[in-house]
Amino acid sequence: MKASDEELIAQIKVVFNDYDDGLSEQGWANLRKKFPEKENKKLPIWWLSGIAASLLLVAGLYFGEVFNTQKTVLQLSKHKKHEPVGKPSTDHIKPQNDSVFENNTIAVENTPITPKVRQQASPAIEPITIHTEAPLMASNAPVTVKQPDKNMDTAPIGETTAPPVVVDHGNMTATAKVENKQATGATLIETPKNTAEKENPATKLSTQEFLNKESERLAKQQNKNGEKNNTANTTIDVFTGTFFNYHDNNDAKLSAGVGLNANVKVTKNLVFSFGAGISQNKVSYENKVPTEVSSSMFSAKNSGLSLAPSSTVYSATATNDVSFNGQLLTIDLPMAVKFYPTKKQDFYISTGINSTSYLSQKYTYNYNWSNFMVKNGEVQSRQETEKRAFSGFDFANSAIIAIGINQNIGKNTLIFEPYYKPALGTMGDKNLRISSAGINLKFNFNGAKK
Amino acid sequence: MREKQGLNELISYCKQGNLRYQELLYKQFYGYALGICIRYLNNRDDALEAANDSFIKVFKSIGSFNEEHDFKPWFRKILINTSLDHKRRSMRFSEALELTDTIPQSIHTSVIDKLSAQDILGLMKHLNELQRTVFNLYEIDGYSHKEISGMLNIPESSSRTYLTRAKQALQQLLANHSIYTR
After folding, report:
1. Strand pairing partners for A328?
2. Which residues of B touch A287 (CB under 8 A)?
3. Cα A442 to chain center, whole Å?
4. In angstroms, what is the C-alpha Rg of chain B?
């Protein structure tokens, strides 16, 4: 080497050994734009999609229910018009239905009921008996008769039987018979006691209106009864979940998922639940990479070990020099048992297992390796990324412990389900050991109380 | 020794993620980092970007740094690799310029002593990217041709050739420079 070359090289080393242009402050300000990386405050797209889907679902079900109710009423009204009136039947009068009608008031002024009236001054005449077969579901349903006008005095005295009015609510038909043998006044209006007091003129309805209204109410009642009878069936949950993945003292990463669950009732308080969901799992090992992860990394064909000149001299402390980020798009297959401890069944405790299959796996790791054969053991940093798609299945790699709180929305149920999933096994190609905790927002169709 | 202790203390605070000490480390090694990056990138803005990216890598991975080793060589590796990454990204490894027409036999050494950073960068600009990179890696930063071959993905023989041509070009440029400055 020429002397001038050596001179030049020495001069370059001297000049550039500390090339401080006095703008370090500006340089630091530039660096601060990138570091430290700020957490993305925007909600992940999965999360937003989940919320949007849930809101749409709730809105859709709400309006759907309103629409269905109106439709039922309309159908019943139409049906009623073709129903023959006057077909008496007492088959369906049951004591348990009494309460349904106890507060109803019927104004019979438009009905062809003619009360029997007798003159008080006619001692020879037997006490009047009115047999009224009125459209009543209950024996104590009020029948109100307006004060008769004076012409009533001239009305023929004798027994009058009102034509029966039948209220037909699908399979429920009622006929009531009212008998009153008292006749103490000049004009006797024979009605059951207590009913006149309950009469509210403001709520007087025509028979048709009354029937429509009762049909509507009965339809609802029947729905409720039907639901109660359906408690043994299977229900479906749609859920969105937001959760944190973590391992030891590494940073927790926010992740999210969506899915479907089927619930099969086993006993009165026990439900077997299973389903499938898609979730995005992120994990970051900055401080301490588990041995199973690092061993998986360095056994990979293109990973750090192969870059080292000799595997035998690879630093034994290499696993401490690693930072690792994993992103997994997974199909989760949860199986759990839900136990409802209370009679009200407004919350449950759930436990089970979760298995995982992988749609995609992406791993990025930064690591330093040193070898005393190279550069006197200087540490060298490297970064690598690995991707895989549609591979792997881990059975029962996490347990499920959850509490669900039910909130009825119409005939359906909204469930808030905080949960914890401790890792039972590892996930993915790199044997990630991830525990997670989060909350599921579930929408339970069919609304059957489990 | 005392300086090393101070540096180790600084590093230990940086390991805790203390931003204040990270800033101190940055300012302490700003000139060192920029000096290395600018030799490879020959442009102050690009060099600053590479230096900052290197500092970020340092802050992120300083937890794995063993204080028993010297910090500077570890940091130098990061700086050089980051600079080469920037260079690859901008795809600026162009074909060599032919500057080997006439090679002066001797150059007045007093001229070399007076070369400033800007003079050297000015001279380096006349080299093509590969020549400059190989020259820097081999002559200034002490990499072997084998290592350079792996780093730049070129044959070792090419590395030697680029180095020779770089030196020849610099001799010629220096001769011109000395004539100009004399």
Report:
1. A281, A361
2. 63
3. 4
4. 18
Q: Is residue B94 situated within a structural domain?
A: no
Q: Are B9 and B83 in a shared domain? A: yes
- Alpha carbons A426 and A396: distance in angstroms, whole number: 9
Interface check for B26 against chain A (CB to CB < 8 A): the answer is yes
pLDDT per residue as tens digits for the range A419-435: 998 888 888 887 777 88
**CB spacing of A323 vs B59 below 8 angstroms:** no
ipTM: 0.85
Q: Which residues contact A396 (CB under 8 A, 6 or more apart)?
A: A353, A354, A355, A424, A425
Among chain A residues, CA nearest to B22: A28
Query: Cα–Cα–Cα angle for A230, A233, A239, nearest 5°?
Result: 115
Nearest to A421 by CA among A438, A446, A443: A438
Q: Which of A4, A25, A377 sits opposite B112 (nearest CB)?
A: A4
Best of A1, A4, A13 to mutate (most B CBs within 10 Å, chain B): A4
Tell me the helices (H) and strands (E) count for chain B, helix number first.
Answer: 9, 0
Q: Which domain holds residue B27?
A: 2-89
Structural domain count of chain B = 2
In the three-class reduction of DSSP (H, G, I as helix; E, B as strand; rest coil), residue B106 is classed as coil
Domain layout of chain A by residue ranges: 95-228, 232-309+318-444
Can you list the pairs that A144-152 forms with residues at least 24 positions away whose Cβ atoms lie under 8 Å?
A: A144/A105, A144/A106, A144/A107, A144/A108, A144/A191, A144/A195, A144/A196, A144/A199, A145/A108, A145/A109, A145/A113, A145/A115, A145/A189, A145/A190, A145/A191, A146/A109, A147/A187, A147/A189, A148/A115, A148/A117, A148/A187, A148/A189, A152/A117, A152/A187
Q: What CATH fold (topology level) applies to the domain A232-309+318-444?
A: Porin (2.40.160)
B45 lies in some domain = yes
The answer to whether residues B72 and B130 belong to one domain is no
* Structure letter (DSSP) for residue A318: G
Kindly report the nearest CA distance between residue A378 and chain B, in angstroms: 6
The CATH number of residue B115's host domain is 1.10.10.10
Nearest residue on chain B to A367, alpha-carbon basis: B61
A327–chain B nearest CA distance, Å: 19
pLDDT digits (tens, 9 = 90+) for A104-160: 444 444 444 444 444 444 444 444 444 444 444 444 444 444 444 444 444 444 444
